[in-house]
Amino acid sequence: MAAKRRAETMEENRGKLIAAARKAFAEKGFAAASMDELTASVGLTRGALYPNFGDKKGLLAAVVAQVDEEIAQRARSRANGQKDDWSKLLAEGVAYIEMALEPEVQRIVLLDGPAFLGDPSHWPSQNACLEATRQAVTALIAQGIVKPVDVEAAARLLNGAAFNAALWVAASETPQATLAKATEAFQHLASGLLVNPR
Length: 198
Hints:
Arc Repressor Mutant, subunit A, 9 helices, transcription cis-regulatory region binding, DNA-binding, DNA-binding transcription factor activity, TetR family transcriptional regulator
């Protein structure tokens, strides 16, 4: 019973730390966020950080994973209203790029994430997106909608194009104008995979 309670407390503390870090990283950025202030804001000591995340970068990785998963879920939700699988795949990529306009997504996932955690292709959340894209491309090839290309290559290129377009939008001085150019180019690039381009 004591072990169960300890595990529940640890999970509760983990949730508190992620929520506090998400707020601090979005408002101040990863580098400027103070771990002492962050832990104190949820009634914990800095010592609570280490068993849960190892260090500050581990906490950032947990926050990036949470935000990135929410982005992916929202993109899938927006794509669900489309009429066919190809339109869903395209709409999901465009939705991901559009979310680069959101300050929290910009700061945490697109700016601080790559700067402090390195190559996004190694993030678990990005690997989950890649797997979903692999499955979509496999289904589209089986349906004869997409050319019989290498699934891994197509999935990686589609994901990479969407992520890099989002990075471009996030770093742009004119994000709305950049978004329009990025989404148009993304759609044209992706449509090159179609057996019968639309």
